[in-house]
């Protein structure tokens, strides 16, 4: 689940939202966690922690500034950094974890918690909370629970986001559409028709591969994409969803996937192929930088006019079970999620700050980030947010398969029936591991 204000750039948006490249099989990670740790000491009594994350240069610049602040406050703790684009990050992390040498602390996401917990890689931070080295107080909207799995604290959230419908505001105005909290899928379908007929473009970029949107739709209907140990929906459910997506493309309500593929890495929305697009709220900056129009955030359509199925997602900081310096790691994480100056430096790069102290410390002045903050606040006030089920081991492989197969379906390489069958076949294998 990206993942902030810069979003992760083009590649980050696609990979974090749709989990492309996340299907990296993990092998040989079950070694006992007793070998040498990731950190190192020195004769001067200093400790060095290795910290890894995914992202681009602009994120690295911000993070390096926060590290300088941390090292000023904790002069005996030094931070050695490493970062890569999203797919490369997990390739390297798998190699390090397989070799028993993962970084002491690293950026993580919910799709990987159970996976790496099962491989004995993640440190349960509850002990450090009890020791007073890490505080889980002061988090917004229940986010302190986001990194908990089976009673273990495997990640601490650093930024929140939620799915939204990003709209081309002039197009929606021209079509006479004003999306409001509680609007239904029938309202959305009608809006797609009006945009096509009045604005001369597809209403939306399409919903073939947006797994997290399908999850919300399932949650609205009493199901979920992932349960704790598998899939929470049937082949018939997915057949219905992908059939609607295919019909929408055929009737011009959704953008032609072949045209969408041709204009990548630009989005269908900013390229004016579509009037809206479902994505994470903190990716909105991407459209403003790419396109010529004015963009806004609209609510997720509902089944019953009330339940959106939404939750606040988050990037997290996790720790290695092999670290030789769990106390220092905990202090580092605590600093990064609570210190107000960190929020002023990071802004919404990784999402809206998760603690109230950091949320209050950074008040955006630009219209786009102000809209992101207002959107998340509107979700809290509307009381639509729900808990999220931690994804099962193998979820990342399922996510990658969903995206890949959906793209093949959209490009006409598979029928709906074949695509559904292929997804369930691959998922069964992934979740059985």
Give keywords.
alpha+beta; disordered N terminus; D-Maltodextrin-Binding Protein, domain 2; three-stranded antiparallel beta sheet; 17 helices; seven-stranded mixed beta sheet; 433 residues; 12 strands
Explain what you see.
There is one protein chain. This protein is an alpha+beta fold and 433 residues long. It is 43% helix and 13% strand. It has 17 helices and twelve strands. Strands 1, 2, 3, 4, 7, 11 and 12 form a seven-stranded mixed β-sheet that branches. A three-stranded antiparallel β-sheet has the order 9-8-10. The chain has a two-stranded antiparallel ribbon with strand order 5-6. Strand 5 (148-149) and strand 6 form a beta hairpin. It is globular, with a radius of gyration of 21 Å.
Layout of helices and strands, plus pairs?
Elements: H1 9-18, E1 40-41, E2 47-54, H2 57-73, E3 77-84, H3 86-98, E4 105-108, H4 113-118, H5 126-130, E5 148-149, E6 152-153, E7 156-161, E8 163-168, H6 169-174, H7 185-199, H8 211-220, H9 235-250, H10 257-262, E9 276-280, H11 284-290, E10 295-298, E11 313-319, H12 326-338, H13 340-346, E12 352-353, H14 356-361, H15 367-381, H16 395-410, H17 416-432
Parallel strand pairs: 2-3, 2-4
Antiparallel strand pairs: 1-2, 4-11, 5-6, 7-11, 7-12, 8-9, 8-10
Helix residue percentage:
40-55%
Overall pLDDT metric: 88
User: Strand portion, in percent?
Assistant: 5-15%
Radius of gyration: 21 Å
| Overall 3D shape | globular
Output the structural class.
Answer: alpha+beta
